[in-house]
Amino acid sequence: MTDDEATPETALDWVVDPTTPAEKGQLPLSVVIITENEEEQIEACIESVFAACRGVSAFEVILVDSASTDRTVERAREYPVTILRIPEEHTVSCGAGRFVGDQVARGELVLHVDGDMTLTDEWLPRAIDYLRNNADTVGVEGCLDESTQTGVMEVDKIGGVTLYDAEALAAISGFDPWLQGYEDVDVGFQLTTAGNRLVRLPEVSATHDVDSEIPEPLRRWRQGYYVAPGQTIRKWLGEPAVLRLLLRRQRFKLALVAWFAAGALSLVFTQLLLGWVVLSAIGFVMIATKRGPMGAVDFLATKTLAIGGVAEGLTRSPRPASAYPLSAIEVVATGRVLQGSPLDTEKQTASTDGSTESTAQQD
């Protein structure tokens, strides 16, 4: 990057305090990056954020790390970004990371990015322009990795790389830090049932690095994603509008539960057993026609595993976001307000500049 491609950085004296929600609208844009053991991708992620924000007059980058055991935080500290760390003993999830980042974010708009994603240059300017020119829209996403979409599509939730109106997000208390996953669905359904609009733009927003060494169902189980739908359903049992959307999203799992129940019933009324077996075989063949035999087995196994997760999630009582232990969040480094795209030299000076030193070193 040359000097002609960047504008100087603007320093700003401020104290990062996760326990006190920051006033929104102080900057045009805040970027919240969430990480957990992303040392291989985090530099590309941060640099892609800087590149995508080249046309933004002023922005800040807040990285929230979920108890990484690798060098994610060490590598991120080479950049002029705010770094917060959630200790391992507290709830570690995507929702918790987004919630913590939004607490200190001061932007009029807030961009959420996962640390294993690399932003494209074209999507963010388009997303910012769309939000500012469509007052009824409060959230925008793009397509991940590739796109066959030709126009703007209205959706009921957004995920992956997302741009929100910060005030609209704060009005529903933002992301739920206690959910093990599904935080984007939870927020999306709240916003849309309140009359707000969410859209997906046809542009590719980012490329996403997927860990192929761990099977997807196992990865989702280990990270609690299968538990999250049950948690969310229980949370909204008293709100029919949101609950209806959640149940509709789980319709395939509910159908499978009903089918298993019919199978159990056929064991009692044996004259029904043959019909259940035959229909089960027909159903498997139909799935296998689209996915192949092993794909059908994987599909059914995944849905069965997810049913167990939903059942477990339903046993978990919802907790208010205000109960999340924000006082335990460690402020590792305090970043600065940036203008345009930071100079390459800022990567080297970030670790020596007082505004990005850890709080321990400042003491």
Q: Would you kindly provide a written description of the structure presented here, covering whatever features stand out?
A:
The chain has 363 residues and is of the alpha/beta class. The protein folds into two domains: 3-209 and 329-344, Spore Coat Polysaccharide Biosynthesis Protein SpsA, Chain A, CATH 3.90.550; 218-314, no CATH class. It is built from 14 helices and ten strands. Strands 1, 2, 3, 4, 5, 6, 7, 8, 9 and 10 form a ten-stranded mixed sheet that branches. Helix 2 (72-76) links the parallel strand 2 (59-66) and strand 3. Helix 8 (228-235) crosses helix 12 (293-314) and helix 10 (251-268) runs antiparallel to helix 11. The longest helix is centred in the C-terminal third of the chain and has 22 residues, at 293-314. It is globular. The model is unreliable at 1-12, 343-349 and 351-363 (pLDDT under 50).
